[in-house]
Amino acid sequence: ARKYVENVEFSAMDATRSDPKFLYQVYAAAIKAGATVINIPDTVGYALPDEFAELVKGVMENVPGIENVLVSVHCHNDLGLAVANSLAAARVGARQIECAVNGLGERAGNASLEEVVMIINTRKDYVDLTTGVNTREIYQTSRLVSMLTGYNVQPNKAIVGDNAFAHESGIHQDGVLKHRVTYEIMHPEDVGLVESEIYLGKHSGRHALKAKLEEMGFYLDDKGLERAFIRFKELAGKKKEITVKDLEAIALDEIRTLEELFQLEYMQSSSGTGAIPIAAVKLSREGKSYEATATGDGQVDAVCKAIAKATKVKAKLVSYQVQAITKGLDAMGDVTIKLDIDGHEVVGRGVSPDIIEASARAYINAINRGIQKGLLEKKKLARKAKAGTRGKASSRKAGS
Amino acid sequence: ARKYVENVEFSAMDATRSDPKFLYQVYAAAIKAGATVINIPDTVGYALPDEFAELVKGVMENVPGIENVLVSVHCHNDLGLAVANSLAAARVGARQIECAVNGLGERAGNASLEEVVMIINTRKDYVDLTTGVNTREIYQTSRLVSMLTGYNVQPNKAIVGDNAFAHESGIHQDGVLKHRVTYEIMHPEDVGLVESEIYLGKHSGRHALKAKLEEMGFYLDDKGLERAFIRFKELAGKKKEITVKDLEAIALDEIRTLEELFQLEYMQSSSGTGAIPIAAVKLSREGKSYEATATGDGQVDAVCKAIAKATKVKAKLVSYQVQAITKGLDAMGDVTIKLDIDGHEVVGRGVSPDIIEASARAYINAINRGIQKGLLEKKKLARKAKAGTRGKASSRKAGS
Lengths: 400, 400
Prior knowledge:
The structure is a homodimer.
Chain A (H helix, E strand, L loop, with lengths): L8 E3 L8 H13 L4 E6 L6 H14 L7 E6 L6 H10 L4 E3 L14 H10 L1 H4 L10 H12 L20 H9 L27 H10 L6 H17 L5 H13 L6 E10 L2 E11 L2 E8 L3 H13 L4 E9 L8 E9 L2 E9 L2 H18 L5 H7 L16
Parallel strand pairs in A: 1-2, 2-3, 3-4
Antiparallel strand pairs in A: 5-6, 6-7, 8-9, 9-10
Helix pairs in contact in A: 1-2, 2-3, 3-4, 9-10, 11-12
């Protein structure tokens, strides 16, 4: 492999349940063959911190040539110890920790990037290590990953959970007010959690919106900005306060809106006790209109069935989630829908103060992603599209 | 304190950032004064495992009389290390781990019970400890706690997350099929995660439902069972398959339904692009009817405003969440609403295949809980109720 690239990582699956002596030989052979990174994975999340540190130390002391390569660890979280194991390994000399934002990964996930980074950062005094990570981007990154993957973060998740910096009990609140260090070992600002004021209202113009969005890191094209502006005006008419999170929701929604695919033009729905939930939708795509009506077990079911009819896309619902983006009943509803289209999962999201409309947007977004990934209308796409549009969906999952 | 009770636990707040020598003296004094449990809390989740083990060891070796008391630890999860720290302490002799189901607790929470238990259970070979916990109740307990507190569990949470036992990548799936131990260090059954078959359909009677519910651990009174049966029949008419999770949702909803408080009799709602969302509700309480209509930013907003009008309860929405209980678009929607009533938070939940109805049920449930906790109608309640109905809401939060 070294003939083709500079950087070759060798990983021994399930290292923590292997015979260490055999493992040393395998790693030695890999280094001889040109590996530049030796990875020690805890593939099924079985190791305990002391035990794992012992294994890493063993590798560092017994593998010939190990001093010339980078030692890496890749821990899974099946027993909730991925972060502790990674840290234990770093303390005995591993210098690469494979981790993921929000701790995402196979099964219970991998070591959580934000926890690993903030441990090293907060406890420099004890661990004597550094990372190159700009911690102020952690919170935004976590939200973005959560929005795009459809995997929510539980409120009591360390560092990036909604409650991570919330002091509820009276005795703690009192302590924080009197002396901040009492209960805060990290500042919310350290991870980029700032509830910054926003001075946009219904009289603000396009330029003000554009400037604010760019300050937040969102760069929309002209069409996207125009649509975002219309939605911003609508929202400003309804809500007293427009928050950073509202703007973020609109911007992300526009970034997700795929051009020249199905767009929601119109929808209507109703239900009641003893009445059959009913919905009507009108979609457009490349100038053509698609209309349908449907009934369902609830309005969400009805509106999604109507969209399915209008688009002629058959899909199975895998999961459905809603979260309120801001507080108050006039909050934007943020709906995530995961569909199974022909055995492939696609995630769609939509936001709106109306939960049914948000659901419709999420469903359409998922279908549009399915189309973009080439899961639907393969023949039509094959004719029109350039190579490379397809196949993106299947090559994402890797081993270890 | 020992004069009044047998079991006295002494806890030294923020022990991990205290001077150990001083800490030894404090603990020694507490033991002299009669403490039977000495608790070492990591109040702000600041400690690293080795460091914490060192502290616990120090206490065990340097505090006079420590051999006659139980050493306990109470770890917080601010850096994601609560479980690892608790385990490290247990390995040097602590014999009480204070933990919480789903890792709930102040800020990022406490050590997660299910992770602590499953580590000790799965790695008996290494840690040589046992717990008295029946692990087969873990999954159900986690779901129940999540439903009752309104704190969701993220899909990649160890042990009890939706994905904890899901193998997604091809190489892992292949491994599991060939030899289960390859990727499963625990069996889903070990924690009580069983997708058991259910043979109830639209022709099943009350007795079959009652028997099945009791098998699942739900004991409803006659009224509750009658209402559950009606909802079961409705659902069986709509859905092909009734799952254990559907039944669980109905049973929990009935358990939550508080007698003689507001009940939902009727509701109707609709919205559309360019149309104003509108809702009408009819509630009953102790034989009286309460009706109202309202408009809102979305149907959820409209229906909640209508309920607020009908009940005359002023409340602020703190959070709103929806999850689908089962797969498919005909899934039951499970809505959690957290309200702020006069500075006190109450959580309400409601389930229905119709998300707007589920929202209405959740809102009413939250208001009913507020009433039950004595947050509303204090004068009226004071006249009617016996002592002890009030005050329950405020005394829950404790220190450390």
